[in-house]
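Please fill in the sequence for the structure shown.

STRUCTURE ENCODING:
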C-alpha cells in the first residue's frame, strides 16, 4: 500500500443523557455514575485516510478546538498506532456540527469513530475487548459510542447495557457557554450519593419522571448565569433537562412539528437544533 491512499468516511453522532446520577466516588477520584444515553441524528462528520509511511497524524479541524495534539481525535489515532504498531500516515478531516463543551459527547463520539474506522481499515487488528479498553483510556463516554445504540451506562462509563426505546424528537438549546466537565465533577457542592437505580425502574412508566434527574444540573446552573437563564426559559415549554455536564438542555417532543414550533421561539443568541434519536448501526 506504499503511496496508496485508503479513505473512509464516518458519522459521529451526538448523545443526550436522559438522566445522570452520581452514586459514589472511587478512591482514585473517578465518579460512579448511572445514566441512560440516547444517540441522536445530530452528528459530526469525519474523513479518515491512511497511507503507508512513517507513523504520523494530521488533523484538519476548526482552529477553535485548539492544538491538534489536545484533540480526542488525534489522541484516538495515536492510541491506535501505539497499540497496533501500524506504520501509517493518517489524515483526519473533522467537520464539527456538535457544539463543544455542551454535554453532547461530540469529542468522545469523534474519538470512537476514529477507533472504529482505523480498525476497519486495519482489517480488524484490534479485538472488541481491547478496543473498549482503548476507548475507556480516552474518556468515560467513548466506550458508549463504540456500541452505537441507546444504553444504560454505569460505573465510570465502562458498564454498558443496551436498551430499546421508542424513537423520539428532541429540541436542543445551548446558550453558547463552554462548561468544563472536570470542573463540575470536582465541585464541592456536587451530591455524590444518589440512590442506585435499576433499568426496570427507569422503564417503569409508574415511576415519577422527577426521580430521573441530572445531578450536575444545579451545580452548572449555580455557576453559569446564562445556563440558569436557559433553564428558566425552557420551563415555559415542558420538562427540559440538561445533558451531561452541560450546557445544552433538551426537551422531548411529541412530534417534529412540535419541536420546530418551539424552536421558533428560541432567542437568536442561543444555538438550537431539532433532531431525533438514532443508532449508529
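FILLED IN BY: designer on duty
SEQUENCE:
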Amino acid at each position: 500500500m506504499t503511496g496508496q491512499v485508503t479513505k473512509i468516511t464516518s458519522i459521529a453522532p451526538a448523545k443526550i443523557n436522559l438522566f445522570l446520577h452520581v452514586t459514589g466516588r472511587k478512591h482514585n477520584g473517578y465518579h460512579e455514575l448511572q445514566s441512560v444515553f440516547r444517540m441522536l441524528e445530530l452528528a459530526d462528520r469525519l474523513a479518515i485516510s491512511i497511507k503507508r509511511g512513517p507513523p504520523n497524524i494530521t488533523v484538519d479541524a476548526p482552529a477553535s478546538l485548539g492544538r491538534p495534539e489536545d484533540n480526542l481525535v488525534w489522541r484516538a489515532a495515536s492510541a491506535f498506532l501505539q497499540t497496533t504498531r501500524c506504520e501509517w500516515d493518517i489524515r483526519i478531516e473533522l467537520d464539527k456540527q456538535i457544539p463543544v463543551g455542551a454535554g453532547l459527547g461530540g469529542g468522545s463520539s469523534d474519538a470512537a469513530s476514529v477507533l472504529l474506522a482505523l480498525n476497519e481499515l486495519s482489517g480488524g487488528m484490534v479485538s472488541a475487548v481491547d478496543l473498549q479498553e482503548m476507548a475507556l483510556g480516552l474518556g468515560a463516554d467513548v466506550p458508549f459510542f463504540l456500541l452505537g445504540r441507546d444504553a444504560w451506562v454505569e460505573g465510570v462509563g465502562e458498564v454498558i447495557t443496551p436498551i430499546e426505546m421508542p424513537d423520539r424528537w428532541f429540541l436542543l438549546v445551548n446558550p453558547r457557554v463552554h462548561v468544563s466537565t472536570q470542573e463540575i465533577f470536582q465541585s464541592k457542592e456536587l451530591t455524590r450519593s444518589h440512590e442506585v437505580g435499576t433499568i426496570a425502574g427507569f422503564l417503569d412508566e409508574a415511576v415519577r419522571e422527577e426521580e430521573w434527574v441530572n445531578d450536575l444540573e444545579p451545580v452548572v446552573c449555580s455557576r453559569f448565569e446564562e445556563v440558569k437563564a436557559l433553564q428558566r426559559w425552557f420551563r415555559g415549554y415542558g420538562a427540559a433537562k440538561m445533558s451531561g455536564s452541560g450546557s445544552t438542555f433538551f426537551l422531548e417532543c411529541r412530534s417534529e412539528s412540535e419541536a420546530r414550533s418551539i424552536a421558533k421561539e428560541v432567542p437568536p443568541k442561543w444555538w438550537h437544533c431539532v433532531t431525533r434519536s438514532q443508532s449508529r448501526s
